[in-house]
């Protein structure tokens, strides 16, 4: 104990703190980092596939962090939005991301000539796999086939408009479709008519006109499709269906139900490649000035041309009935 009390304690060595001075940031370093920050994205975008020699890369794809244009040429309101895409391509069951990609493609289709899949994926903030999956869901073999068909859809109305100007009728149909129309009205049975939205105006006109000529016509109004078709399957000679896009779900449901029980369907549509056209027995294609304007907010001759086309078909039918002594 004495030894412990008398033992001298050695104090700990003093703590030393060293400060390392940081090198000053020079003006050259700041300028170098600024150049890399600004020029590197441009260099990366210019080196992407699709930016060929002598061809300027689209400005909307150069900096993906900028706001993407919604319309072709960057003017006006969006030509088509997600809600319209969801309705137009409801059967494909697209995800939110796939709808965004399709929205971008449709609204910029005229500015995407010869642009590869990678720049499109960059502009939509997604992967190339998503773009390929979108093309597969829409029934195409790949991205190139999808782009070709989408561009064809945009320009087909212009070509059809020119062909209609050169003729005296307001519809285009396949061989034999007029005969199907005549045969459907030959039968002394009920004629069903259906249309949604603005097409309901055409449906009401058709039904009123047919009744005025002595035919028995009825509009599928508030009855469910299954009930309407099942209750009248033995009395319906045909079903006239009007849809500008050819993708209206209610009209497609009626077309499928009629097809299943053997009722003749006559389609009046602006899209000859639509689901309605694939299901109907006879397709009468009417010129549609704006195929992607599902809300029908732009000036369009479809509704009027559809009524004129019906009158022209009715005139052919009545002339045929008079020759056979069966006119009403």
Summary, kept brief:
This protein has helices spanning 2-6, 27-46, 59-62, 82-88, 96-107, 117-123, 128-137, 143-165, 177-186, 199-212, 225-232, 249-261, 275-279, 302-323, and strands at 172-173, 190-195, 216-219, 236-243, 264-269, 282-285. The chain has 328 residues and is α/β, with parallel strands linked by helices.
Secondary-structure class? alpha/beta
- Annotation, overall tally of beta strands: 6
Rg, alpha carbons? 33 Å
Helix % is 40-55%
Would you give an account of this structure?
By secondary structure, the chain is of the alpha/beta class. Helices cover 49% and strands 9% of the residues. It has 14 helices and six strands. Helix 5 packs across helix 7 and helix 6 crosses helix 7. The radius of gyration is 33 Å and the shape is elongated. The termini are far apart. About 9% of the residues have low confidence.
Descriptors for this entry?
alpha/beta; elongated; 49% helix; six-stranded mixed beta sheet; Arc Repressor Mutant, subunit A; Rossmann fold; 328 residues; single chain
Map the helices and strands:
Elements (H helix, E strand, L loop, with lengths): L1 H5 L20 H20 L12 H4 L19 H7 L7 H12 L9 H7 L4 H10 L5 H23 L6 E2 L3 H10 L3 E6 L3 H14 L3 E4 L5 H8 L3 E8 L5 H13 L2 E6 L5 H5 L2 E4 L16 H22 L5
Parallel strand pairs: 2-3, 2-4, 4-5, 5-6
Antiparallel strand pairs: 1-6
Helix pairs in contact: 5-7, 6-7, 9-14, 10-14, 11-12
């Amino acid at each position: 104990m004495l030894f412990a009390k008398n033992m001298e304690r050695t104090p700990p060595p003093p703590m030393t703190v060293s400060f390392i001075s940081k090198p000053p940031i020079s003006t050259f370093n700041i300028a170098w980092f600024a150049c890399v920050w600004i020029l590197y994205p441009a260099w990366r975008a210019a080196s992407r596939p699709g930016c060929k020699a002598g061809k300027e890369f689209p400005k909307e794809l150069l900096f993906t962090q900028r706001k993407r244009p919604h319309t072709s040429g960057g003017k006006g309101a969006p030509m088509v939005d997600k809600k319209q895409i969801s309705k137009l391509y409801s059967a494909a069951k697209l995800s939110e991301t796939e709808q965004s990609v399709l929205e971008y493609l449709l609204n910029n289709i005229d500015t995407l000539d010869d642009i590869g899949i990678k720049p499109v994926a960059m502009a939509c903030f997604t992967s190339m796999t998503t773009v390929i999956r979108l093309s597969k869901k829409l029934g195409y073999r790949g991205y190139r086939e999808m782009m070709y068909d989408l561009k064809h859809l945009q320009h087909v109305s212009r070509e059809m408009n020119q062909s209609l100007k050169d003729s005296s009728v307001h519809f285009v149909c396949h061989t034999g479709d007029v005969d199907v129309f005549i045969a459907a009205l030959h039968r002394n049975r009920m004629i069903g008519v259906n249309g949604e939205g603005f097409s309901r105006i055409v449906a009401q006109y058709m039904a009123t006109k047919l009744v005025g000529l002595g035919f028995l016509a009825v509009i599928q109004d508030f009855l469910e499709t299954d009930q309407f078709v099942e209750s009248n399957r033995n009395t319906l000679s045909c079903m006239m269906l009007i849809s500008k896009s050819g993708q209206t779900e209610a009209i497609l449901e009626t077309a499928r139900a009629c097809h299943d029980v053997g009722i003749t369907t006559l389609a009046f549509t602006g899209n000859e490649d639509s689901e309605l056209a694939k299901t109907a027995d006879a397709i009468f294609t009417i010129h549609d000035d704006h195929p992607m304007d599902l809300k029908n907010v732009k000036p369009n001759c479809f509704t009027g041309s559809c009524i004129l086309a019906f009158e022209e078909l009715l005139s052919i039918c009545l002339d045929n009935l008079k020759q056979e002594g069966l006119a009403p």
